[in-house]
Amino acid sequence: MGIFKKKKVIKSKAKAKVTAPKKVVADPVATAQKALGLPETGQLDYTTETRLKKFQMVNGLAITGEADAETLKKLG
Questions:
Q1: By CB neighbour count within 10 A (0-12 exposed, 13-18 middle, 19+ buried), where does 42 fall?
Q2: Distance CA 33, CA 40 (A)
Q3: pTM (2 d.p.)
Q4: Is residue 2 included in any domain, yes or no?
Q5: Which residue, 5, 32, 55, 56, shows the most beta carbons closer than 10 Å to its own?
Q6: Residue range 36-64: average pLDDT?
Q7: What is the DSSP string of 13-48?
Q8: Contact indicator for 63, 24 with CB cutoff of 8 Å
Q9: How many Å apart are CA 44 and CA 42, to the nearest integer?
Q10: What is the DSSP letter of 75?
Q11: C-beta separation of 32 from 72 below 8 A
Q12: 1-12: pLDDT as tens digits
């Protein structure tokens, strides 16, 4: 026997915390286009802006013609 003692290795029983991947936010214009039944181009073209304004007017929202948070919320 030597003068050196063997060190005891302690293994951790804790498991690594697994985090879910962050939610990817879709393009708001394409999301609005899909909800309005328009082709999903992601471009805020004349047709998309006009349909957004009409939707906003009918639903009592600020008429901006943009795919803002309140409009997207109402679109579902």
A1: middle
A2: 6
A3: 0.67
A4: no
A5: 32
A6: 96
A7: -PPPPP-PPPPPPPPHHHHHHHHTT--------HHH
A8: no
A9: 7
A10: H
A11: yes
A12: 567 677 777 666
What is the maximal distance between C-alpha atoms in the chain?
A: 89
Asked if residue 56 is part of any domain, the answer here is yes
Give the model confidence (pLDDT) of 2-40 as tens digits.
676 777 776 666 666 767 665 555 799 999 999 999 999
- Is 42 a domain residue? yes
Total structural domains within the chain: 1
Q: Is residue 48 part of a domain?
A: yes
Domain that holds residue 63: 28-75
Average pLDDT over residues 57-72: 96
65: left (phi over 0), alpha (psi -120 to 50) or beta: left
pLDDT at 42: 94
In the block, tokens 């082709």 appear at 39
